[in-house]
Write a structure and sequence with these properties.
Layout: H1 2-32, H2 64-75, E1 78-79, H3 85-90, H4 96-112, E2 119-134, E3 138-152, E4 157-171, E5 174-182
Antiparallel strand pairs: 1-2, 2-3, 3-4, 4-5
């Protein structure tokens, strides 16, 4: 029995020594591959390809129908809490002559506005756009809109459909709204 215990003890010591050697090797290897926490910055070289201006595509030209849709939806959407920002938003889409009309309209709207009247808002969405005149320099559309109006409370809404005639002229590469008539 004594020899059996000696053999078991020797095997246990050998296994323990082998485990300690393996552990020491793992720790030793890891310490050699540690990363420096504050390395010296390496210079970054950025290669910028040369661009030939002829290869750059021209900016996309916005169609008359797109300008009409944007103009109608923004101009026709209003909230009493926004101080007529809808009109300010579409000024760049109008001809100088129509901008003057919109400015006058804006003055009238702001003069007539009664803050004590409560909430008032209209949300306009284009349903159809039907061209009635299209040429290189002019375009006219009959636009059918869906308008949701809220009076007194944003939850108190009334839905209606309204048509509008929109005429545009081409100024350089841009289409600009020259007139809008609600029907």
């Amino acid at each position: 029995m004594l020899t059996r215990r000696k053999i078991e003890s020797i095997v246990a010591v050998v296994i323990l020594v082998v485990l300690l050697v393996l552990l020491w090797l793992l720790v030793f290897r890891k310490s050699k591959t540690q990363v420096d926490v504050n390395p010296e910055p390496t210079p970054v070289v950025q290669i910028v390809p040369e661009v030939n201006p002829a290869d750059v595509p021209a900016p996309a030209v916005v169609s008359a129908s797109t300008v009409t849709r944007i103009f109608i939806e923004r101009f026709g959407s209003y909230s009493s809490e926004s101080d007529f920002a809808n009109v300010d938003d579409i000024m760049s889409l109008a001809t100088p002559a129509y901008q003057a009309e919109l400015e006058a309209l804006l003055v009238t709207y702001r003069r007539q506005y009664d803050p004590e009247a409560g909430y008032n808002g209209i949300s306009t969405r284009v349903i159809t756009l039907k061209p009635t005149l299209e040429s290189e320099a002019e375009a006219t559309f009959l636009v059918t809109t869906q308008r949701e109006e809220a009076v007194g409370n944003p939850g108190n809404t009334n839905l209606r459909y309204q048509d509008a005639d929109v005429s545009l002229v081409k100024a350089g590469e841009d289409w600009l709204v020259n007139d809008l008539t609600w029907k």
